[in-house]
Q: What sequence folds into this?
């Protein structure tokens, strides 16, 4: 049995929440499933090959999401710089704000980012659907075992 964890990827809110002229596309929220050795998660039946395939697909998907987000942040002037007493910090260069057409550049950068994220999601979709199907099967099996252990007097069984 393999434990599967779930997390959600969303673009980082900064600096988009401070730039009124930037329009972040709606619906850029992606579900990621990962194999975890922890107690949390859902137990599903899987082979070692399945685990390896799922983990490789997750790594490729997550890397593409992060790269797309990094490219759109770079296009908007966000840079990582070394700071005092910290490893690095994100700062925003404002010099490109004075060049006309910043809204158009922003829309194009976000359109490219969204296209990359949707393409990565399409490549990850078969793996995600397989994992979700196995999670549903495991939860149905667990509910069935709980009903049998209860003696069949659960809410779905008819009363005499």
A:
């Amino acid at each position: 049995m393999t434990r599967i964890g779930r997390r959600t990827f969303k673009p980082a809110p900064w600096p988009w929440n401070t730039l009124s002229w930037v329009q972040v596309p709606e619906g850029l929220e992606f579900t990621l499933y990962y194999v975890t050795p922890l107690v949390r998660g859902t137990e599903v039946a899987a082979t070692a090959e399945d685990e390896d395939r799922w983990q490789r697909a997750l790594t490729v998907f997550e890397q593409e999401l992060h790269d797309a987000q990094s490219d759109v942040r770079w296009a908007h002037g966000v840079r990582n710089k070394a700071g005092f007493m910290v490893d690095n910090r994100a700062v925003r260069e404002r010099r490109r704000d004075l060049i006309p057409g910043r809204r158009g550049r922003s829309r194009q950068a976000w359109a490219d980012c969204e296209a990359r994220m949707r393409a990565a999601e399409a490549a990850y979709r078969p793996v995600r659907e397989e994992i979700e199907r196995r999670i549903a099967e495991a939860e149905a099996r667990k509910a069935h075992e709980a009903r049998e252990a209860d003696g069949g007097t659960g809410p779905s069984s008819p009363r005499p």
The first helix runs from residue 48 to 75. The radius of gyration is 22 Å.
